[in-house]
Write a structure and sequence with these properties.
heterodimer; A: mainly beta; 6-stranded mixed beta sheet; 5-stranded antiparallel beta sheet; 56% strand; globular; B: mainly beta; 7-stranded mixed beta sheet; 4-stranded antiparallel beta sheet; 11 strands; 50% strand
């Protein structure tokens, strides 16, 4: 079966750093995405990892270890607007390359 | 670039009516489009995958006769919720992907909020 695990909720303080973990067990692997979703809106792309290692993009970084089936999203210098749900998604093998989604981590950034 | 639009953004209808939602890729050709449904405080649930010019592939548990999908062109896919009932009320989101591109990225539309009375 396909399984993606993320923490349900996290809380952090404005200006701090937070790491959101994601573990996966899927039939095949063609890449892992992190998306941000604010309430009532569609997801927006944050990062994509297909090779092991760290990808840095501004305040956001994403790490992947394929051998461990593990990824994390690192958010630095947290801002209030970063309060949102963060979704981990894996592309599985197959012609349609569909995404398998985690349930999302709801992050609350407090002043 | 890579903009996907959805129309309407919000719709309220009576039980038993049918509702059509359009998903358009505005500046690229989408060989594959995905339709998702999202209930409050839950993750995205893939309903079906549609490839231009062929029948949609539905996920297990999704009624293909109730959720009609048409992907007639490389820039347009439609989802019709037939004989809608209150339990169909949800946030429907489409995404589109090109045939090329190494990232396999899906570009999401803004979503359609359906409320069935």
């Amino acid at each position: 079966g396909q399984n993606i695990d993320q923490p349900t909720e996290m809380t952090a303080t404005e200006g701090a750093i937070v790491q959101i973990n994601c573990t996966y067990q899927t039939s095949g692997f063609n890449g892992l995405f992190w998306y941000q979703q604010h309430a009532g809106e569609a997801p927006t792309f944050l990062s994509y990892n297909v090779l092991d290692g760290l990808e840095e993009k501004g305040r956001f970084s994403s790490f992947l270890s394929r051998s461990k089936g593990y990824s994390y999203l690192l958010l630095k210098e947290l801002q209030m607007k970063d309060s949102a749900s963060y979704l981990c998604a894996v592309i599985i093998a197959g012609n349609n390359r569909k995404l398998i989604w985690g349930l999302g981590t709801s992050l609350a950034v407090n002043p | 670039g890579a903009v996907v639009s959805q129309h309407p953004s919000r719709v309220i209808c009576k039980s038993g009516t049918s509702v059509k939602i359009e998903c358009r890729s505005l500046d690229f050709q989408a060989t594959t489009m995905f339709w998702y449904r999202q209930f409050p405080k839950q993750s995205l649930m893939l309903m079906a995958t549609s490839n231009e010019g062929s029948k949609a592939t539905y996920e297990q548990g999704v009624e293909k006769d109730k959720f009609l999908i048409n992907h007639a062109s490389l820039t347009l896919s439609t989802l019709t919720v037939t004989s809608a009932h209150p339990e169909d009320s949800s946030f429907y989101i489409c995404s589109a992907r090109t045939s090329g591109g190494a990232r396999n990225e899906q570009f999401f539309g803004p979503g359609t909020r359906l409320t069935v009375l």
